[in-house]
Amino acid sequence: MPIIVNLDVMMAKRKMSSGELAEKIGISQANLSILKTGKAKAIRFSTMEAICKALNCQPGDILEYREHD
Fold this sequence. Notes:
There is one protein chain. The chain has one domain (3-65): Orthogonal Bundle (434 Repressor (Amino-terminal Domain)). Helices cover 55% and strands 9% of the residues. It contains five helices and two strands. It has a two-stranded antiparallel sheet. The protein is globular. One of its GO terms (molecular function) is DNA binding.
């Protein structure tokens, strides 16, 4: 898939665990795991906003586009 999710990278940079982030943004750890692994089909803007606020980052720090080879 050409959209790469770098959520785990940002979490590591901010030294934040999955449990802590899930609690801060109000979603389950299972749903956060789906986002982290790139298996999600969509993400709500409100969820992206909450993630960016919690991690003090921009959406582009979390999502990346790579052209298919």
